[in-house]
Design goal:
Peroxisomal Thiolase, Chain A, domain 1, alpha/beta, 2 domains, globular, 34% helix
């Protein structure tokens, strides 16, 4: 059951178990420093399909199926799946999962979608016996076309720009199982400090991450030193520096524990990634490929996973609107 310990934060009496996880990435992501951590590195960015959107749908479906298979389950064993992506109407998700015959709740949290999905799946698993899945994906080519410029335009990327990862991650959460466990979750608030530059997602998202992490520490009484790592979704180099500065203003030092999936995904200089990686699949694949195995083995005992999402709309941006952001937090533990 859930125990409310703050306006935003809920702790589990019986901790749900992440019984399975799977990750898929594209060729460029596979060439990065984490390449050996992922279940699948796909050399063909089209995933055998005719369009980028179809490619992302295929990637997501394969990742979900793999996570379910690794759990020793079949799709009919899953009570519900919480899933989303970056594209209008979560197109990649609905088309990718339509053949699996799993009860479906589509979600949208931009690049925080994996944390949102894991949060919801954990709450469902804790409140009733069953098995629930969470999944998300992104594709460089679909996201660039929707949020910035067509690839054929050949526009120059600014130093603060991040590379939308071609990647997907999926987990299966159960009311019973072994580590990794979800100890608590914190639902983020929408934060908007007036950033308008669509090529500076890190600056837009950092205040939301700072708000959620600070809230969780205050609600629970934990200090940064209680965690082996405090992981943000995809703030990149710019957003990561800003997050540390914002936390320091509140006399909270997370510099020793902080890690960012967008920074970790690529060799930023060798692969010319500017400020790092981003996208729904960035934090999802790094969580499933790198962190959850370390939690399972006990190499990491306690971690915060605070994925961040810029709730940007191309139409709103063209109308001069700023970029609101959100960050949802999951406390994952080995014991």
């Amino acid at each position: 059951m859930l125990k409310k310990i703050g306006r935003n934060t809920f702790e589990f009496d019986n901790m749900p178990s992440i019984i399975s996880y799977s990750s898929t990435v594209g060729k460029k992501e596979g060439e990065g420093p984490l390449g050996g951590c992922f279940d699948v590195v796909e050399e063909d960015s089209h995933f055998g399909k005719e369009t980028w959107e179809q490619a992302e749908s295929e990637m997501l479906m394969e990742t979900v199926e793999h996570a379910i298979k690794k759990a020793g389950l079949k799709t009919q064993d899953i009570n519900c799946i919480f899933s989303g992506d970056l594209i209008n109407q979560c197109l990649s998700t609905s088309y990718g999962l339509r053949s699996l015959d799993i009860p479906f709740l589509g979600i949208y949290g931009a690049c925080s979608t994996m944390a949102e999905g894991l949060l919801l799946a954990s709450c469902f698993a804790a409140s009733s016996e069953g098995k629930y899945a969470a999944a998300t994906s992104s594709h460089f080519s679909t996201a660039e076309r929707q949020f910035r410029l067509p690839l054929s335009y050949g526009g120059q990327r600014t130093p603060s720009a991040q590379w939308t990862c071609t990647a997907s991650g999926s987990v299966v959460v159960s009311s019973k199982g072994t580590a990794p466990f979800v100890r608590a979750v914190s639902v983020g608030k929408i934060v908007d400090l007036g950033i308008t530059d669509a090529n500076n997602m890190g600056a837009a998202m950092a205040p939301a991450a700072a708000s959620t992490i600070k809230t969780y520490l205050e609600d629970t009484g934990y200090s940064p030193s209680d965690f082996d790592c405090i992981v943000t979704g995809d703030l990149g180099l710019v957003g990561s520096r800003l997050l540390l500065e914002l936390m320091e203003k509140d006399n909270i030092d997370i510099s020793k524990q902080h890690m960012d999936c967008g920074v970790m995904m690529f060799d930023i200089e060798a692969q010319d990634m500017h400020a790092g990686g981003s996208g729904c699949g960035c934090s999802a694949s790094v969580l499933c490929g790198y962190f959850l195995p370390k939690i399972k083995s006990g190499e990491i005992n306690n971690m915060i996973f605070a994925a961040t999402g810029a709730l940007i709309s191309p139409a709103a941006s063209q109308q001069g609107e700023s970029i609101p952001s959100v960050s949802h937090l999951i406390h994952i533990t080995h014991q």
